[in-house]
Amino acid sequence: MPIARRDDLRLHYELTPAGGREAGIPVLLVMGLGVSATGWWRTVPILAESRPVIAFDNRGVGRSDRVPGPYSTPQMADDAIAVLDVAGFERAHVYGISLGGMIAQEIVLRHPDRVAGLVLGATAAGGPDAIPPDEATLAFFRRRAEMPASEAVWASVPYSYGSTTRREHAQRIADDLEQRLRYPVEPEPYVAQLTAALWHDACRRLGEVDTPTLVVHGDEDQLVPAANAGLLAAAIPGSKLELWPGASHIYPTDEPEADRSVARFLAEAEGRRQLAG
Questions:
Q1: What was the pLDDT predicted at 277?
Q2: By residue range, what is the domain housing residue 11?
Q3: Distance in angstroms between the alpha carbons of the first and the last residue of the chain
Q4: Mean pLDDT, range 174-179, rounded to an integer
Q5: Per-residue pLDDT for 273 more than 80?
Q6: 9-16 and 3-6: which strand pairing?
Q7: CA–CA dist 200, 218 (Å, integer)
Q8: Residues 199, 109, 71: CA angle, nearest 5 degrees
């Protein structure tokens, strides 16, 4: 089992080699609140068609150590760089979703030379300008830590998936939850990660980002309202904004084309850099 170490912390990661003969720059996947690397199960095969893919369990979840909190996004960004180091890659694209997108912001701000391209999915810059979810949604996610794991993931469905998926594609949701429940999150690490998300604030620093960036969001997202995507895209020079109609927080399940679009963006970012070089 591949393990990256950062001080006394052990971080589990998985490296999927590129399926094609011509492999692009690797991509590091950073997952969101309370979910292990298994949450990327739909995304990894798509991106690995053209590049190596590194996915890891953030501190507190999955097979990584459950260290005491609270956590912070800068701390978790440095965890991600430790994984990249041990995996043996000097540079990679970084694709983060939800809390993982907040961590990805800190990765590119703290370690800009390590990031070839950036994808920020279903996330926000934090700080005073961020658009919060409504109070009922916030209250649910605070209560969620007290629920048994199986009850919590099913109760999260209305907040996580678009209305069309819930109505017409229930099997997609069931398949996702099966993956999530392989390594259910425990209450204390969940709260520690939630604290990192609530205290994240990169809004005044994103103008420093000089990396090809794609901002992706579903327009039905209740957990991180879609207006945050526009704020992110406006703050990052030259970034591209992609809103998926009818998709919610877990947009790769609602809209299977979303990760295909991410793959195209990463290939285009590499092409632009080659031309510039």
A1: 52
A2: 3-276
A3: 38
A4: 96
A5: no
A6: antiparallel
A7: 21
A8: 30
Q: What share of the chain is helix, strand, coil (3-state, %, to 5)?
A: 45, 15, 35
Instruction: Find out whether 89 and 81 touch, Cβ atoms under 8 Å.
Output: no
Angle (nearest 5°) at CA 140 between 243 and 61: 80
Res 222 pLDDT > 90:
yes
Structural domains counted in the chain: 1
Reading phi first (left if > 0) and then psi (alpha if -120 to 50, else beta), residue 165 is in alpha
Which residues on neighbouring strands pair with residue 92, listed in sequence order? 115
pLDDT score recorded for residue 146: 86
Q: Is 54 left (phi over 0), alpha (psi -120 to 50) or beta?
A: beta
Q: Which residue has the tokens 């590129």?
A: 18
Strand partners, 27: 53, 93
- pLDDT for 113-168, tens place per residue? 999 999 999 999 999 999 999 999 988 888 888 888 889 999 999 999 999 999 99
Confidence of residue 44 (pLDDT cuts 50, 70, 90): very high
What count of other Cβ atoms lies within 10 Å of the Cβ of residue 108? 26
Q: What is the DSSP string of 200-246?
A: -B-TTTGGG--S-EEEEEETT-TTTTTHHHHHHHHHSTT-EEEEETT
Q: Residue 82: which CATH number?
A: 3.40.50.1820
